[in-house]
Amino acid sequence: MRAEPLLREVFGFDSFRPGQAEIVEAVAQGENTLAIMPTGGGKSLCFQLPALMRDGVTVVISPLIALMRDQVRGLKEAGVEAGALTSGNTEEETAEVWSAIEDGRLRLLYMAPERLASGGAQAMLRRIGVSLIAVDEAHCVSQWGHDFRPDYLRIGELRRDLGVPLAAFTATADAETREEIVAKLFDGERPREFLRGFDRPNIHLAFAVKDQPRRQILAFAEGRRGQSGIVYCGTRAKTETLAQALREQGHSACHYHGGMDPDDRRAVEGRFAREDGLIVVATIAFGMGIDKPDIRWVAHADLPKSIESYYQEIGRAGRDGAAAETLTLFGPDDIRFRRSQIDEGLAPPERKAADHGRLNALLGLAEALECRRKSLLSYFGEEVETCGGCDLCDKPPELFDATTPVRMALSAALRTGES
Ligand code: ADP
Ligand code: MG
Ligand code: ZN
Asked: Which residue numbers delimit the Rhodanese domain (predicted)?
């Protein structure tokens, strides 16, 4: 199965977090991988999703029983056959895992590293058709680290024994730990390594309160005449009217949405790839598979649905590393629209709550008072020292302004008190 439908249908996410798509692809294809991602970055998905794309069982080695149980519970709720063999199991739980293994139903088998100490476990794993080993918190293999777990040293042997690919994950990025992981888990043979922070320093971030959205977008495009850009809109109708308005201003612009004839859509994709300076005004249907490196700007005429979508959409700009600019408009109507979209959807309540959380995170970013890059990256678990550019760093909001009306009201009140 392909990754995107599983991402949506099983995990309930609309888009990958930064870095996930590449890792999922490599792991699913059976490459040995070492992925370093900040805490909260979404590492679990990078082995859970490939586990569903591959035949056979994925063995997940994880250091903490509580972590394993959480993940198994989450997977089962999503309808995935997963189980854990840990010392914390009841006999019933263990029997259930075994029967799922025997029937060939089990897709993910979580195991504490201690289990690997018994010869029985290795023999069992050899028998059940393991197709992938995933190692969570792989820095536990490092003898010099704080989290050293001696039994992690058995994983390399298991990999050799089973002859299957191994995917290792950690948030610990220092070079020494990385070398130790490569030496101990992969016998020194270099895996494919993924070490990409989430920061895209060449992308300038800006938000503005919507007052006259069409004029605001036209003004933004005016300042970037002749450059390739994307304007994302919340509705299909708006893509058409806004593209028309841009053409009336002399821009080369066309619309794109899921309601169009597939041939027409392909024509727009082709023009965008070939031409310089075309503006595509689109719904989020325009995205997957767009890998034009020199998109110089992305504007949101309407607020995206989540902080993940925002990151992914602005991330289409500046892939070539040269400066790129973004502008996201938002207003009370957007917030109402996005909220009702979630509430009226068919997702189960927990998922709706999570979707509201991701929308709230975006609102937090929209209303941030200092560096947007810091807020954005801290959501993904990453810290940055310097900002490559955002509207708030360019021009810090004058907090004094916000208090002026209050002060005026206050002094007015004082004056009335005096008279
Ligand atoms: P890590 O192991 O890297 O610290 P997790 O795998 O625990 O991170 O994921 C952190 C959070 O991010 C979880 O709540 C998870 O549901 C969420 N998450 C992961 N991938 C995505 C995604 N593509 N879109 C939205 N949320 C995601
Ligand atoms: Mg984790
Ligand atoms: Zn900043």
From this structure: 230-262
Pick from 134, 135, 96, 165: nearest CA to 84: 96
Strand residue runs (E) in 171-300: 192-195, 203-204, 207-209, 229-232, 252-256, 278-282, 297-300
Distance CA 383, CA 178 (A): 20
Ligand 3 center–CA 336 separation, angstroms: 27
Long-range contacts of 292-295, Cβ-Cβ distance < 8 Å, separation of 24 or more:
292/228, 292/316, 292/319, 293/319, 293/320, 294/228, 294/319, 294/320, 294/322, 295/228, 295/229, 295/230, 295/319, 295/324
Proximal ligand: closest to the CA of 67: 2
C-alpha dist (Å) from residue 360 to 167, 234, 307: 33, 18, 8
Residue 417 is predicted with a pLDDT of 35
Longest CA span, the chain: 92
What pTM value is reported for the model?
A: 0.68
Closest ligand 1 atom, residue 306 Cα? 25
Residue 355 phi/psi, 5-degree rounding, is -65, -40
Most ligand 1 atoms within 8 A of CB, residue of 13, 135, 198, 355 to mutate:
13
Pocket test of ligand 1: the residue of 44, 46, 73, 136 to mutate, having most ligand atoms within 8 Å of its CB, is 44
Residues 158/125, Cβ–Cβ less than 8 Å: yes
Could you give the CA distance from residue 85 to residue 92 in angstroms, rounded to a whole number? 11
342-374 confidence digits (pLDDT tens): 999 988 888 889 889 989 999 999 999 999 999
Q: What is the mean pLDDT of residues 379-387?
A: 84
- 49 Cβ partners below 8 Å, 6+ apart? 3, 6, 7, 10, 11, 24, 28
Overall average pLDDT of the 78-91 stretch: 91
Looking at residue 385, its pLDDT comes to 86
Report the pLDDT value the prediction gives residue 240, as an integer from 0 to 100.
98
Q: Is the pLDDT of residue 39 over 80?
A: no
Q: Compute the distance between CA of residue 328 and CA of residue 205 in angstroms, rounded to an integer.
A: 8
Whether 285 contacts 258, CB under 8 Å: yes
Q: What are 103-119's pLDDT values in tens digits? A: 989 999 999 999 888 87
Pairing of strands 324-330, 203-204: parallel
